[in-house]
Structure formats: structure tokens, C-alpha cells
Amino acid sequence: MARGAPSRQAGLLRAAFPGEKSNVDTEAVRDRLLKRREELRQRASEASADLRHEADPLSADFAEQVTQRENDDVLGAISHSAQEELQQVEAALRRLASGRYTTCSVCGEDIEPERLAAVPYTDRCRSCAEGGHAAGGRGGRG
Fold first, then answer.
1. What is the pLDDT of residue 62?
2. How far apart are CA 39 and CA 44, in angstroms?
3. How far apart are CA 88 and CA 37, in angstroms?
4. Considering the entire predicted model, what is its pTM?
5. Which of 19, 68, 101, 109 is the most buried (most CB within 10 A)?
């Protein structure tokens, strides 16, 4: 095995060097991410259909149209949020497949297991997510 490459044994992603702390049940993580991906796809699809007024055409009454358009703003925000999280989930699945799931994309250190449990699609350790590392700390995502 190449130096620095993770080894997979019995569904666990293990760090390649002694003393590294990553032991993640990749099958459980993958299942959780796949389930979340389907939920987000469904949410985005439903919001998009509602925005197109497929089941509920716009009312002829102007006052009712105003209410419907206000609802459209909320649906648009829901759809946008679902699409953003879906992109993060898909990126996490790619990192999982390539063996980089537990590695911070900013500093290269291990992402804390508690953080991965709480935000399974995160690509940053706590310090980088909070902007603490001088090398990166772009903040914002996961």
C-alpha cells in the first residue's frame, strides 16, 4: 500500500500511520449519506413542482396570487437549501469513496469523529470551520 493511503478493512476507514485516530464505519456513513441524498432529492423535487404550480395553478384573484408568490419565495429558499446540502452530501460520498472522508480539506488534519457524526457531509475540522487555522479557515461550509 502506498504511504499515506488509507486501508479499508471490514468496512472501516483506518488511518495509514500508527497513532492516527480515524476509525470510521464507512458502510454506516455511506448508508446515512445515501439516505440523506434521497431525502434531499425528494425535497428539492417537491419544492420545484410546487414552484411550477403543477398541482395548484395560480389563482385568478390578485390578492390570492400575492400570497401564492410569497409562498414561492419560501419554496425557492427550501429548494436552494436542499440543492446546496445535496452538493455537500455528494462531495462527501466522493471523499468517502476515495478514502479522504476523514481528512480536512483545508489543513489536512483528521476531522473529529464527533463532528463527522453531527455533520456527516463536512469537509473541515472544527478549527478550520471556525476559521482557526492560519493556512485556510475559509469558513462557511460544513
1. 78
2. 9
3. 10
4. 0.67
5. 101
pLDDT of residue 69: 81
Same domain, 115 and 66: no
Q: Give yes or no: residues 61 and 94 share one domain.
A: yes
Give residue for cell 410546487: 50
Q: Residue 35 domain-assigned?
A: yes
Taking a C-beta distance cutoff of 8 angstroms, is the pair 96, 116 a contact? no
For residues 46 and 114, membership in a common domain is answered with: no
The pLDDT tens digits for 26-55 are 899 999 999 999 999 999 888 888 887 766
Asked if 130 and 36 count as a contact pair (C-beta separation under 8 A), the reply is no
Percent of the chain residues topping a pLDDT of 90: 48
